[in-house]
Amino acid sequence: MVIWGVPAYSRLTAQGQISVPAQIRRRLGVGPGSLLEWDAEGDNVVVRRTGRYTSEDVHQALFDTTPKRRTLKELKEGLRKYAQERHARR
Q: Where are the alpha helices (DSSP H) in 4-88?
């Protein structure tokens, strides 16, 4: 299989595990602890990263561009507000 012009292969272990090739991990921006979503589409399997937000995305959503020290309480409140706005029913 050729993905983004580069051949990528994985071998299935006896325990049913696979390794994601390095070029695919870099392209998807995934690393240890990242969640991947597997979806069957006909005879093909599509793998997507599910964690769509980087720490920079969260920081930009919580705070303006001026760096400022925040208390833990302020951070938690900012995260709560962001999650409520992001996942509010429309």
A: 22-28, 55-62, 72-86
> What b/e string do you get for 6-44 counting C-beta neighbours within 10 Å, with b at 16 or more?
eeeeeeeeeeeeeeeeeebeeeeebeeeeeeeeeeeeee
Q: Answer for the pair 62, 74: CB distance below 8 angstroms, yes or no.
A: no
pLDDT tens string, the chain, 90 residues long: the values are: 555 566 788 899 999 999 988 888 888 888 887 888 888 988 988 888 886 666 777 777 777 666 677 888 988 898 888 888 877 665
CATH code for the domain in which residue 35 is found: 2.10.260
If asked whether residues 39 and 59 sit together in one domain, one would say no
Q: How many domains does the chain have?
A: 2
74 touches 82 (CB < 8 A): no
